[in-house]
């Protein structure tokens, strides 16, 4: 068997953490043959709860789980990790200004970035889940300058990608495995653009069809579909009174697994990555693009200009100005009218 990989989950005592750690221990993150040493970090008020999660992980007797580090010490948590899944953060509470939450998360992500740079494996792969995910990833990148390759810092938009696949599959009565190559552009927030224009679906005839042709309802695709995906996080909060957790956890596994093990031939996925200026997204910002992956490296899929857009949109296919004004996206208030994410 290969040597164990160290996988860190921050905020591991939280809701996503509780759904995520068993998936990792089952092999959903790095495949069924890769032994794991799980590092779990949380803050002192959650220390006991974290200890309880550790006890349950032991009780589940996962064959792949070769060790558990459950700690509130940042240095211990980050030491030697190969994969860092950043779920921990300060949630926006009622009555708090968005700026205030951002400020708190900036300090957390700066501190954790320096621990990452000092103590993690030099080739550590990072996925930021905590909102505002794009911004937290940007802060993390800025604070690891020189020590962690910017290409190794990503944020999660795979949940949005999966939500888009699932909506198309539901609509056409197929499974999500039959749908491929949707794209999430932009931020993990209600400003994202879920794009089906390059996607295909395999129907009962066994043939691949363009999603637009198969759905045959542009009005739905251009309006309701986009809103459903953009506002799905808020819709889950309305029903569950808690934000998405099992779907977020499952999407984290998809994100990391595809990144490390590669996307299938002819298929891309969506990841928030550091922009190289592609598609007019300013170089250096963390932005969700279509990417293909191979052996732990992602590549932005080029040549995706959307031929369904009007000519005025083509000069600025992503509506960048609007996105940038909303860069401080994040955990929108539920029911504040513009939907928002988790
Ligand atoms: P939660 O509140 O249940 O868990 C967060 C955990 O982080 C808590 O246990 C808390 O003690 C811990 N924490 C706080 N500060 C920390 C720090 N400095 N270091 C380590 N741990 C710390 O929240 P939940 O539901 O698990 O969500 C976590 C984050 O993920 C939220 O920011 C949420 O908005 C975001 N999210 C992102 C999604 C995405 O697709 N990118 C989807 C769903 C949620």
TrEMBL record:
Catalytic reactions on record: (S)-malate + NAD(+) = oxaloacetate + NADH + H(+)
Lactate/malate dehydrogenase C-terminal domain boundaries: 157-302
Organism: Chara braunii
EC number: 1.1.1.37
EC class: oxidoreductase
Domain (Lactate/malate dehydrogenase N-terminal): residue spans on this chain: 6-144
GO MF term set: L-malate dehydrogenase (NAD+) activity
Transmembrane segments: none
Family: Belongs to the LDH/MDH superfamily. MDH type 2 family.
Protein known as: malate dehydrogenase
Keyword terms: NAD, Oxidoreductase, Tricarboxylic acid cycle
Whole-protein coverage range: 2 to 343 of 433
One annotated GO biological process: tricarboxylic acid cycle
């Amino acid at each position: 068997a290969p040597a164990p990989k160290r996988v860190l989950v921050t905020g591991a005592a939280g809701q996503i953490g509780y759904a995520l750690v068993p998936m990792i221990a089952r092999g959903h993150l790095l495949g069924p043959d890769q032994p794991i040493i799980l590092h779990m970090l949380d803050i002192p008020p959650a220390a006991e709860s974290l200890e309880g999660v550790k006890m349950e992980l032991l009780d589940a007797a996962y064959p792949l789980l070769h060790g558990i580090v459950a700690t509130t010490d940042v240095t211990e948590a980050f030491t030697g990790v190969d994969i860092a899944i950043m779920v921990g953060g300060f949630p926006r509470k009622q009555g708090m200004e968005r700026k205030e939450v951002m400020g708190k998360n900036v300090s957390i992500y700066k501190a954790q970035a320096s621990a990452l740079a000092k103590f993690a494996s030099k080739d550590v792969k990072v996925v930021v889940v905590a909102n505002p995910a794009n911004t937290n990833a940007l802060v993390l990148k800025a604070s690891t300058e020189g020590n962690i390759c910017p290409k190794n810092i990503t944020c999660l938009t795979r949940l949005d990608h999966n939500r888009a696949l699932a909506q198309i599959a539901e609509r056409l009565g197929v499974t999500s495995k039959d749908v491929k190559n949707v794209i999430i552009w932009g931020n993990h927030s209600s400003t994202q653009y879920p794009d089906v224009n390059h996607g295909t679906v395999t129907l009962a005839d066994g043939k691949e069809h363009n999603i637009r042709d198969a759905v045959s309802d542009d009005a739905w695709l251009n309006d309701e579909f986009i809103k459903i995906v953009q506002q799905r996080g808020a819709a889950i909060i309305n029903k569950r009174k808690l934000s998405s957790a099992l779907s977020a956890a499952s999407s984290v596994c998809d994100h990391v697994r595809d990144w490390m093990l590669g996307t299938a031939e002819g298929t891309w996925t969506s990841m928030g990555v550091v922009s190289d200026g592609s598609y007019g997204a300013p170089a250096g910002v963390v932005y969700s693009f279509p990417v293909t992956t191979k052996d732990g490296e992602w590549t932005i899929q080029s040549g995706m200009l959307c031929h369904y857009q009007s000519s005025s949109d083509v000069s600025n296919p992503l509506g960048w100005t609007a996105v940038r004004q909303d860069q401080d996206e994040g955990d929108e208030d539920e029911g504040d009218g513009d939907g928002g994410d988790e």
